[in-house]
Design brief:
Helix content of chain A: 25-40%
CATH topology of the largest domain in chain A: Phosphoribosyl-aminoimidazole Synthetase, Chain A, domain 2
CATH superfamily of the largest domain in chain A: PurM-like C-terminal domain
Low-confidence stretches of chain A: none
Strand order of the largest sheet of chain A: 7-9-6-10-8-11-12
Order of helices and strands of chain A: HEEHEHEEEHHEHEHHEHHEEE
Structural class of chain A: alpha+beta
Strand content of chain A: 15-25%
Largest interface: A-B, 57 and 58 residues
Distance between the termini of chain A: 8 Å
Oligomer: homodimer
Shape of chain A: globular
Largest sheet of chain A: 7 strands, mixed
Number of domains of chain A: 2
């Protein structure tokens, strides 16, 4: 979750091109950081603190997944409200632990602070580049099909805390198939698709009929009055991957569904990259990128 | 700046020994994180925001210096008060820039958040291990002399924001001399000396007569009623290095003063490591480790 405007300024001042992806790559090392803040990313009284700890780590792992990297170690910095004390830190850690174990991560260090204000947790994750190299946002080609690794929309009901980062899925696909580009959906399908296509110098046609709308999007639409499809297109924090693959590879992937048996994950075709910039539906009407802008 | 109690628990649960030093070492990579919070580490209305940005980076660089490492890249996460906006981020960055340039650091990424509470800035610094290997807290031997790289005490008056991390000094000394152990003084001379000696399985005799008391400690003592020496012994955030070196090497270093011409830095002898645990003055009276406990 990267603040676009500030990063643009920094990018212009540091002359680095490292900042436009889900994570930075320095030699063989991938690095990414995400900070969650109380009242913005979670409400402390309404969410199990374990979920907060889990999410703080998982959002970073999703960035590593989008790069096709292997996560290796993490450092954790927290600002704890004085009223909560060290028990909260313990709960945050309990929430991280299953992911630490699942991905064999080293907890390499931390900085624990207490203060009189809200909870802040910032995690930095290091990863390793595989022999296949990293996946970038900017590798898409005209005609590439965009596949997504799961259902979209309504994440705010629960999925935003309990999603599974697509680490193993990305590694498997990147090893066995020809992937051109990837991004994880952190701020909303249409917004992140827009980012991938812009970084690739392209636009995209969205297959509105085959967008995999989640049951949560349907449920949420009953509260909001917006359609389930609208939620699927613009809700943030799905943390599924958008993958740009050549058409013949997409056909193969959709026929084989190689992630289904291994990870219980289905790939869905959701868009095609086009030489014309901007997002459009199949009937040519314009789709404005929507989602959560930082 | 590492919260001891929480880290102890984590250490016991992760089974890792990575957490007891100024920074963690993973293969050839050194990693450290520090978070500064408003009201605890600084008062936003009373300090130039550039100083805050500078300090947030410099405290991490001091940790890398204490490991004898070469800093290479950083990621920055901030939570900005909504009332301040992006200009504050810009100022924070302006404060970091001279250090980024001085140490040729890559700004590899960031996460910028806004919220309705205080400013939080968390920086992770990556570094590289030199062919000499890393300096540890636990490498001290009985009889080792403890040298310090500068004047102590009164840092709160200004030095805490404007100190120079001892990166080049540590690299130079580690390349040309036989150093056993190191730590940076973040929480107070006596507390950090205590940590180094405990990690080395030793205690220390403090040369109270040769402690280099800073003018700021003298100035501060006029406000507090405590002696300048007390300030030098227990004030936090000097960010000088304590180095444990064999006696003959200490003699050489104090005679040569190899840092003076190169970096305008003088080495002072401040203590000797002893087989008996605990800190004592030369007359045998006990010195209780004092400083800032997180």
């Amino acid at each position: 979750m990267i603040e676009t405007e500030w990063l643009k300024r920094l990018r212009s001042r540091t002359g680095t091109e490292l900042l436009g992806d889900d994570a930075a790559v320095i030699g063989d090392t991938i690095i990414t950081v995400d900070m969650l803040t109380e009242g913005i990313d979670f409400l402390l009284g309404e969410v199990d603190p374990q979920w907060i700890g889990r999410k703080a780590l998982a959002v970073n792992l999703s960035d590593i997944a989008a790069m096709g990297g292997i996560p290796t170690s993490i450092v954790v910095a927290v600002a704890l409200p004085k009223s909560e004390g060290i028990q909260l830190a313990e709960q945050l850690y309990n929430g991280m632990e299953p992911l630490l174990r699942k991905y064999s991560l080293t907890l390499a260090g931390g900085d624990t602070n207490t203060w009189n204000q809200g909870l802040v947790i910032s995690i930095t994750v290091l990863g390793r580049v595989t022999p296949q190299g990293v996946l970038r946002r900017g590798g898409g080609k005209p005609g590439d099909q965009i596949l997504v690794t799961g259902l979209l929309g309504g994440s705010i009901l629960e999925h935003q805390f309990l999603f599974e980062p697509r680490i193993f899925e990305a590694l498997y696909l990147n090893e066995h198939f020809n992937l051109h580009a990837a991004i994880d959906i952190s701020d909303g399908f249409s917004l992140d698709l827009h980012r991938l296509s812009v970084e690739s110098g392209l636009g995209a046609t969205v297959y509105e009929k085959s967008i995999p709308v989640s049951p949560a999007a349907v449920q949420l639409s009953q509260q909001t009055g917006r359609t389930p499809l609208e939620h699927a297109l613009s809700d943030g924090e799905d943390f599924e991957l958008l993958l740009a693959v050549p058409p013949e590879e997409a056909e193969k992937l959709l026929a084989l569904q190689p992630l289904r048996k291994r990870f219980n994950v289905t790939l869905y075709p959701v868009a095609e990259l086009t030489p014309e910039p901007g997002l459009r539906f199949t009937d040519g009407t314009v789709l404005c990128p929507q989602g959560f802008e930082h």
